[in-house]
Amino acid sequence: MTTFLSNRAIYKSVICDLVPQVRERLRIATADIKDMYVETGGRDMVPFLAVLDRMRKRGVEIRLIHAKEPGPNWRENFDRYPGLWDGWRGEYCRDCGRREHCGDPVV
After folding, report:
1. Is residue 4 part of a domain?
2. Is 20 helix (H, G, I), strand (E, B) or coil?
């Protein structure tokens, strides 16, 4: 079954519900990495990097492909999760020749 998602439905269905359930590998392709905060139940909001860090601790391999260098807020938050540093598979596409305009979490 194919389901069309847009706007808030993408955030809720994919980012909040599906991504944290990944068991082995998570691949995310995006044009611009943002310092995103996500709902964890109720009114609590945590950095998306905290979600990724918990996944890494469970043994999930995480790979991120982005076309634009992350901003200072994202980098500052990233520094709060030293466990992500060693196994981080982030790829900045400086030499892509064109800017990617996509957002493709593969679950």
Report:
1. no
2. helix
